Amino acid sequence: MSDLTTTNTGAADGDPGHDATTAGEHAEHAELVLPNGRPAPAPLPHEPRRADIDPKAAKRAERQVSIMFTLAILLFLLFVVAYAAVDKTTVIALPLVGTMSASNLTLGLTFGLAIFLIGAGAIHWAKKLMPDVEVVQMRHDLVSEPQDRAEALEIFDAGAVDSGFGQRRIIRRTLIAAMALFPIPLVVILRDLWVTPPDSPTPSALLKETIWTKGERIVTDGSYQPIRPEDIPVGGLVNVVPASLLEVEETEGNLNARAKASSIIVRMRPEDIRSQQGGTPEEPWDYQGILVFSKICTHVGCPISLYQKRTHQLLCPCHQSTFDLADSAKVVFGPAARPMPQLAVTVDSEGYLVARGDFQSHIGPSFWEQGS
Ligand code: FES
To answer: For the region Disordered, what residue ranges are annotated (predicted)?
Structure first.
């Protein structure tokens, strides 16, 4: 049922072939009335754009659009060059931002700018060159009759003609070229999965190691405060990181170390712990019921900190994988295939919690070189 109808035109008679008219035609042939019987406000007078009346302006706009698409092409190519040429270990310092990886910065800038220019070019094209006609379309029931589908196709074809996609060859070609190059950066960076520089660890080895080392203090994530066992109540959960994380982030200029080393501490009564991933009865991996696990879900890597203290279960909000932290963090529900890796802990001479080494299994999602 229409909210807005015409009083003296065939446009509202349910004939879809006649219910879309330009505002000018509408103003000539129809008077719109609102459901309360009052006349609808008249449309504002339509001002033609510069490019509509000046062929030189239209040509200029066409050039601007194609320049943006061409710059996008160059930036995609620059992305590939930067990927190959910029040393991945180089770190640069930027005012206000701090240190960051030169490789990440150049890859992000080139790819981001290329995408931006394609978007900006498309908007500029639509605003300056595509038809600037106000169209009034009457509402009608949403049925999908064959006639409607045929009409939609007609409108699509007319839109293709109106957009100038067929006629404006330079825009069409530069846009097609820019879009054709769009997947290249995505494919190029896949190379990192199987090709590594000489003397560099393989991706698999990189994922095996975190910055947790023997004696590394465990500090709260955010405030970086060392933690004593008595700071953690039974049933509590604290997000933690290694004490050296800030320094490593400063040196590496990226968040890789954080992505791998983020962990959680939980505390339960020692008698509630049914099994652990390692240790001996004399030297268990927990410290007085304090257990530390990776925070990165072994399904596809979401960070987890939803903990139910009554059941000792850790729940991943992404796909509901559930781990029993009292029983070696085994998977009790959901798609994850492996337990959450456990970190062995103790206290140092000052009574602060420290790691007893790195994780003994891969953190994060499973992958082909690792098995399940
Ligand atoms: S990422 Fe945790 S269940 Fe999928």
So the answer is: 1-29
